[in-house]
Amino acid sequence: MSKARAASDVIVKLIVGAGQASPSPPVGPALGSKGVKSMDFCKEFNARTSHMIAGTPIPARVTVRPDRSFNFELRTPSTSWLLLSAAGVELKKGKLKGAPDSKTIVDIIATALGFFD
């Protein structure tokens, strides 16, 4: 039973800033415990996110195979982060610095949907 369990792929979910992956926590320990060289992941992640705005939180889904090779797919940032950045609201130490009012939110949604083109 343990051989069958060891022979399956393992999925690791991470949220890393675009272009800011480093072998320090949370990336290093999460991948190191699965036997993946975190520096290889960091180089490839930073190369694939180099065209994005630096620091954008990008969810990554890393699939680790039994032979310790890996591949990963990048997801889009969370909707709340996209709305807050479009509204110009800054997050400071986990707390909102100012809050968008309902008019700002309606303007963002209308612009995204193309109502005011």
UniProtKB/TrEMBL annotation:
GO molecular function list: large ribosomal subunit rRNA binding; structural constituent of ribosome
One GO term of the biological process aspect: translation
Superkingdom of this protein's organism: Eukaryota
Stored InterPro entries: Ribosomal_uL11, Ribosomal_uL11_C_sf, Ribosomal_uL11_N, Ribosomal_uL11_N_sf
SUPFAM superfamilies: Ribosomal L11/L12e N-terminal domain
GO CC annotations, alphabetized: mitochondrial large ribosomal subunit
Domain Large ribosomal subunit protein uL11 N-terminal as annotated: residue spans: 12-70
PANTHER family referenced in this protein's UniProt entry, alphabetically: 60S RIBOSOMAL PROTEIN L12, LARGE RIBOSOMAL SUBUNIT PROTEIN UL11M
Protein name as catalogued: Large ribosomal subunit protein uL11 N-terminal domain-containing protein
Native source organism of the sequence: Monilinia fructigena
